[in-house]
Amino acid sequence: MNPIIEKTIEFVKETLADAEAGHDWFHIERVYKTALTINEQEKGDELIVALAALLHDIADPKFNDGDEEIGPRIAGDFLKSIGVDSSIIEHVKQIIINLSYKASLGTVTFHSKELDIVQDADRLDAIGAIGIARAFTYGGYKNRVLYDPEVKPNLNMSKEEYKNSTGPTVNHFYEKLFLLKDLMKTPAGKNIAQKRHNFMQEYLDQFYNEWAGMK
Ligand code: ADP
Ligand code: NI
Q1: Which domain holds residue 98?
Q2: Last residue of a domain, one of 79, 107, 135
Q3: 99 and 2, same structural domain?
Q4: pLDDT tens-place string over residues 25-73
Q5: CA pseudo-torsion sign 136, 125, 73, 50
Q6: Mutate to test the pocket of ligand 1, among 130, 176, 177, 178 (most ligand atoms within 8 A of CB)
Q7: What pLDDT score does 102 carry?
Q8: 120: phi then psi, degrees, rounded to nearest 5
Q9: Is the ipTM value over 0.90, yes or no?
Q10: Which residues surround ligand 2, an ion (CB under 5 A)?
Q11: Ligand number nearest to the C-alpha of 101
């Protein structure tokens, strides 16, 4: 394996040793593998894709007083310390800055194939079987009910409402997870997203059947 990647994996594992389950090393590893899978078809720069996937959640602004610069800064300083070219560092930092769902709700000025690939891979981890597990983990952490037939999903939430939403976890499927399929940028990402999307629909069909007491 490329020693730059090897050192980066080691750094990310150490740094995320105490991270919560939604954004721990295993999330990074899944996004990394999915990004490489997408890249086989999309043929972006593999080193950039790998480094950006590995470093994309190195510091979450949510847990750092909303500091949006901290992640790209830590990633950049690390890559510099292991002697990576400055043009590669710049590209990786731009990807991290522009990756988040929140950033994509604002104005995004940077575009690259590698950004599209890593963003698709990150979003894919929020849907399908893993996405379902992550959503209920998050809901449990926030002490939310699984489902409440009386509480309808809110499809037009502002950023602020989205952040403070207290709705049942099943509503999150309609408020975000089912929307991700159409946000995929790469053909390979769209393909994988469609399968995971269908699986979530089947899952909810079964969920409602069980809720209604069906055999
Ligand atoms: P991201 O890392 O994609 O920016 P978040 O930090 O908002 O996303 O969420 C991490 C995980 O928790 C994702 O799988 C997401 O779907 C899930 N999640 C976020 N908000 C909610 C919510 N209101 N209810 C259930 N799951 C949620
Ligand atoms: Ni992520």
Answers
A1: 1-107
A2: 107
A3: yes
A4: 999 999 999 999 999 999 999 999 999 999 999 987 666 777 778 899 9
A5: positive
A6: 176
A7: 62
A8: -60, -45
A9: yes
A10: 57, 122
A11: 1
